[in-house]
Design goal:
The protein is mostly helical. The protein contains nine helices and no strands. The chain has a domain of 106 residues. Helix content is 41%, strand content 0%.
């Protein structure tokens, strides 16, 4: 209670001191509050700053214009804009004169005639393929009867020459292979087939000749039938003459059969037995 009483008494005294000082309508005296009457109503800290706080004084110095400068906006007018300057052409003729026509271009030289392109010849067709060469087929020999007007006489043909010893050896070497198969019981059938394929005689006729001339072999029967077919004579006459002259090249030359024909027949028959 003592503390409350000590606080209320000064406050009440202060309030009572302010009440007589208020004038009409409850306004404070012209001098302001008692603390501000002597200093013109300006707080002590603002007297040197002109009544403006220190922080705002610097901002107003930068932002606000001077007091004697009046800022006004320019008046809005509807005056027309100035017309753009007129550019006169220096190449235009004066008014009232007819413009001169432009000079005609000089005629250029006519183009040179171009020769038409030469006609391309048509492409030639590709050459026809050449068929492979076919070896000649050996003629089939037949033992036809002689038609010579003078039987027994040899037919002399041009181009026949006397055989040499080397050619006889080559022929005998080919005939020896045929004789080897002829004398073998297991291979005689092959020899007979090779001889008939070269001469064209039948197996029966070849067996009959072998029985008539038992001393002869397969190679001898081969040469006799080849010479008989080429010379158009019976094989019996050729076999009979062979008993007197065993050289087949000589017998062939005497009847117009060249040694090349006999050599080719012997080689082909020997090749069939390989």
């Amino acid at each position: 209670m003592k503390l409350l009483r000590a606080l209320l008494i000064p406050a009440l005294a202060f309030t009572l001191a302010l009440l007589p000082a208020r004038a009409d309508n409850g306004q404070p005296p012209a001098g302001g509050p008692p603390g501000l009457q002597k200093k013109g109503g300006v707080p002590p800290g603002l007297q040197k700053k002109g009544g403006v706080p220190p922080g705002q004084a610097k901002k107003q110095g930068r932002e606000l214009p001077p007091a004697d400068v009046v800022v006004t906006n320019p008046p809005v007018t509807n005056a027309p804009r100035p017309a753009p300057p007129v550019i006169k052409r220096t190449d235009a003729p004066p008014r009232g004169e007819t413009p001169r026509p432009a000079p005609a271009p000089e005629p250029s030289a006519p183009p040179e005639p171009v020769a038409p392109p030469a006609a391309t010849p048509p492409a030639s067709p590709p050459p026809a393929p050449v068929p492979p060469a076919i070896p000649p087929t050996p003629p089939r020999l037949t033992n036809a009867p002689a038609t010579n007007p003078a039987p027994g006489r040899p037919i002399i043909r041009p181009g026949s020459t006397a055989p040499t010893a080397q050619q006889e050896r080559e022929l005998n070497r080919e005939l020896a292979r045929v004789n080897l198969f002829w004398l073998s019981p297991q291979n005689k059938a092959k020899a007979v087939a090779a001889i008939t394929a070269e001469t064209g005689v039948t197996d029966a006729m070849l067996e009959a000749q072998a029985r008539a001339y038992p001393a002869l072999r397969g190679g001898d029967l081969l040469m006799a039938n080849v010479i008989a077919a080429r010379a158009n004579q019976p094989a019996a006459e050729v076999l009979a003459a062979h008993a007197k002259d065993p050289r087949w090249l000589t017998a062939g030359a005497a009847r117009g059969v060249s040694m090349e024909v006999l050599m080719d027949a012997a080689r082909r028959t020997s090749a069939r037995l390989r």
